[in-house]
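wait is this the right file?? whatever heres the structure
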């Protein structure tokens, strides 16, 4: 039987700060005299080697399945390493594909203006992956979860950028399965990095994620800037950016309009997050605009590993349900 959908019923109390050790959260809604930036956290990289998805048979007609092309291009980068790494260029067009992994460090995924990487709408054979160890089980259902559309594990020095290209998810199908309680496993995120460092995500748009949009977990030295993240306001659990058990993360100069929190800082769930024991720390969030029926910035609801040193400044709070939300579930540790 498909699993039941768990209702989303957060609540807020000042006493919840006790479960978020050393939390420093500040909000400034005025212009700074000097414009602070994340520059320098992750050095910009020039890639000596450049290839195009079309070199591997990629077709941007919105109909041809390009999974093989993406996997072969990344295999080439992985096994024919150049000093300084390789840039994979996606020219204008709509490139339909199943999920794929960024399997190698020292690479750039570059989307030209007018380029879209679009997830196939097929759901029945979407690959599964194990729950994160800090969660133990997944949000929608017990057991494993559907693999994120684009994902990377244990990587270093990876850049996803371009000229305002788009990564587009098949959100509507998955949102309806959640509403109708026909999910077998937890929905997929659009982009997820696990146990990685030196990550830059910039000059990109993310549309219609089935679940969380951008999810760096167990990561360090992550910069996310100049991104646009869009999902309908009634789309369930479509958080914009969720730094999770990660440190030295900077999120800035972005527009996020989604069906849940714009930015949500997390660190694991219940006894699994306590046992894993990896907190989120050194999180900077600045100059974020957009709309949300929930929070502009939230801490939680998964906070079991601890959260400390979060700075939020120059946040646009227009047409937002809650400005800053410190939250958990009833019964959650």
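ok assuming it is, sequence goes like this
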């Amino acid at each position: 039987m498909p699993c039941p959908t768990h209702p989303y019923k957060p609540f807020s109390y000042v006493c919840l700060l006790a479960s978020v050790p050393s939390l420093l959260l500040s909000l400034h809604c005025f212009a700074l005299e000097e414009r602070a930036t994340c520059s320098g956290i992750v050095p910009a990289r020039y890639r000596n080697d450049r290839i195009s998805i079309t070199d591997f048979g990629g077709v941007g007609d919105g109909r041809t399945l390009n999974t093989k092309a993406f996997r072969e291009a990344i295999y080439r980068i992985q096994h024919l390493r150049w000093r300084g790494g390789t840039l994979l260029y996606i020219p204008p067009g709509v490139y339909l594909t199943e999920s794929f992994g960024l399997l190698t460090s020292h690479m750039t995924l570059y989307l030209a203006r007018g380029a879209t990487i679009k997830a196939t709408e097929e759901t029945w054979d979407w690959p599964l992956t194990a729950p994160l160890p800090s969660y133990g089980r997944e949000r929608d259902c017990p057991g494993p979860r559907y693999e994120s559309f684009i994902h990377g594990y244990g990587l270093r020095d990876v850049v996803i950028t371009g000229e305002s290209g788009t990564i587009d998810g098949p959100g509507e199908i998955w949102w309806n399965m959640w509403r109708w309680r026909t999910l077998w496993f937890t929905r997929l995120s659009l982009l997820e990095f696990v146990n990685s460092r030196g990550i830059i995500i910039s000059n990109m748009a993310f549309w219609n994620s089935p679940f969380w949009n951008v999810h760096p977990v167990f990561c360090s030295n992550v910069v996310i800037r100049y991104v646009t993240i869009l999902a309908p306001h009634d789309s369930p659990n479509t958080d914009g950016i969720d730094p999770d058990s990660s440190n030295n993360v900077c999120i800035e100069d972005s527009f996020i309009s989604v069906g849940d929190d714009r930015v949500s800082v997390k660190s694991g769930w219940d006894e699994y997050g306590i046992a894993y024991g990896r907190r989120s720390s050194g999180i900077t969030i600045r100059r974020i605009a957009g709309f949300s029926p929930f929070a502009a910035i939230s801490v939680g609801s998964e906070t079991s590993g601890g959260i400390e040193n979060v700075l939020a400044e120059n946040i646009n709070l227009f047409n937002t349900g809650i400005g800053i939300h410190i939250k958990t579930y009833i019964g959650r540790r």
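The radius of gyration is 19 Å. so i think its the right one actually
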